[in-house]
Amino acid sequence: AIIYVKTNVPQTLRFGETVNNIIGRTSNPYNRLLSCGGSSGGEGALLALHGSPLGVGTDIGGSIRIPASFSNLWSLKPSHGRLPYGNVRTTLDGKESSASVCGPMAQGASDLVYFV
């Protein structure tokens, strides 16, 4: 069986900390008093706890890189257009100057190869 897990995100999707009014705050997996970062902080926390082998997020200003750095993970923000974006929804429709990209987060650099 393949288990699908939806992780927590900030309410505005563009915030450096993962907190919203539905799920609440996602803490750093190594210290509950610290933040896990954002906006893909829920995915970063899940990866750090070995709940997933590979995570995928979107990044404009650090949304996969910040949670990775807060949880001792590896991430990659590819150049715009390097990887297919497909039908990924974005909050920046019509704002091409702020191009979002999909990128992986993982336990190690060698794990990023499976996504790229």
SSE arrangement:
Elements: E1 19-20, E2 24-25, H1 41-48, E3 54-59, H2 65-70, E4 74-75, E5 101-106, H3 109-112
Antiparallel strand pairs: 1-2, 3-5, 4-5
What can you tell me about this protein's structure?
This protein is α+β, with helices and mostly antiparallel strands. It has one domain (19-85, 94-112). Helix content is 16%, strand content 16%. It has helices at residues 41-48, 65-70, 109-112, and strands at 19-20, 24-25, 54-59, 74-75, 101-106. The strands form two sheets. Strands 3-5-4 form a three-stranded antiparallel β-sheet. A two-stranded antiparallel sheet has the order 1-2. The longest helix is centred in the middle third of the chain and has 8 residues, at 41-48. The mean pLDDT is 88.
The low-confidence runs, each spanning 5 or more residues with pLDDT under 50, are none
Strand order of the largest sheet: 3-5-4
Shape: globular
How does the major sheet shape up?
3 strands, antiparallel
